[in-house]
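Suppose a colleague, Dr. K., hands you the sequence of a protein chain of 247 amino acids and asks what its three-dimensional shape might be. Before reaching for any lab equipment, you can write down a predicted structure in token form. Begin with the sequence itself:
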Amino acid sequence: MTPPRVFISYSHDSAEHKSWVLDFATTLRSRGIDTVLDQWDLKPGDDLPHFMETELDKCDYVIIVCSETYVSKANAGKGGVGYEKMIVTASLLQRIDSNIIIPVVRQSSSPTLPTFLRSKLYINFSNDSEVEYSLDELLRTLLDAPLYEKPEIGTNPFRPLQGSKPDRTADGVKASMVVLSKAFEKSQYDDLSIGEIKNFSDMHRLKLERYLSQAESMGLVKSDILNKYSVTSDGYDYLVSHGIIDS
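The predicted structure, expressed as tokens, is then:
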């Protein structure tokens, strides 16, 4: 793949901060990122506004190193002298896709962002002991190599309904037929009383009787004068087609 081109915006707070940014940019380049930095790409006599506008148009990402000084100057609209124009302003960002902006926090206090970036997620590089974790998160974003891949969506487990409402009766009938099949599997008789069938279900007896009555109206079971239930040939086909018993 073509290395992503990344423009780094930062404020020249101190020699120590400039050195940190230089090391940071060097690490990005060593790990496959085409990093653009003023300390490499600008020389005396170059036009700063032109450089920034050109690079913002060409880059794939903009990394904004948010130190306390950067946040303060960005919020105050300052940065008009010399290299302080390396501060990307809200007006400049209106020219590019805001999705390519990645705030990187480098601060000694609680993390804060410039007002025009406060809605964005940031990566915290303030703690040097955890810099490799932060760097891994940043590189995975720049190189489009997420730590976790979003899984594919599975198939819909439900069949389309004929009516507008779920058929809860059908669910209950199926549950009663499951109970009935278990009861007959353990019995040597061809018909069973509700009490014998109830031994194989946690369902309330009245509910079980109701669903067995529904099953009978569907021709799946039949009952005799003694209220003993047996499975009809249609009931057997139902048990097989619903995967309750093997054919």
